[in-house]
Amino acid sequence: MKFNIANRRIHYWLTPFLAIPILIITMSGVLLQVKKQWGWVQPTEMKGLSAVPSIPFESMLSNVRKIKGFEAATWTDIKRIDIRPSKGIAKLSMNSDVEIQMDTDTGEVLQTATRRSDWIESVHDGSYFAGDWTKLGVFLPAAIGLLVLWITGLWMFWLPFQAKWKKQRIRNRQTSKSAA
Length: 180
Hints:
By secondary structure, this protein is an alpha+beta fold. It is built from five helices and four strands. It has two domains: 2-32 and 124-170; 43-115, no CATH class. It has helices at residues 2-33, 57-64, 117-125, 127-130, 132-179; strands at 78-84, 89-94, 98-103, 109-114. Helix 1 (2-33) runs antiparallel to helix 3 (117-125) and helix 1 (2-33) crosses helix 5. The chain starts with a helix and ends with a helix.
């Protein structure tokens, strides 16, 4: 019986400390789940002309410089380039959280839009708030605590069934003894 009381106390007292990190993780996780379906989170992928990339990287940068607000762009302004041959596009993710989609055959800029999925992901893993300290000092313990809540919750869920089966077994024994 002491184990069951300890289990309930752990479950009870751990919950308020984990409520806010779990809420943040859950809400940002929901947004990340629908990032391909909702253009507000991540821009919808356009389609280029050819599945064979033929534009050189320097042409990509010069085409980025033709976009208003990116006239002085350099390679240091580009966070990453994601080339999708099957779609015929290159996604240039800028440090300013803007995504530029470009046709990999012609170099034509197909779309310029804000990409929010990267900062939502940093909120999700906790690094957005104070870097590794929050990620490892708050969100990692919250994840471990959530695992403990899951285990203690399953135990509390299981107990009534176990008690019911135990009572049923006792009744069955009593019934079989009285029948004999």
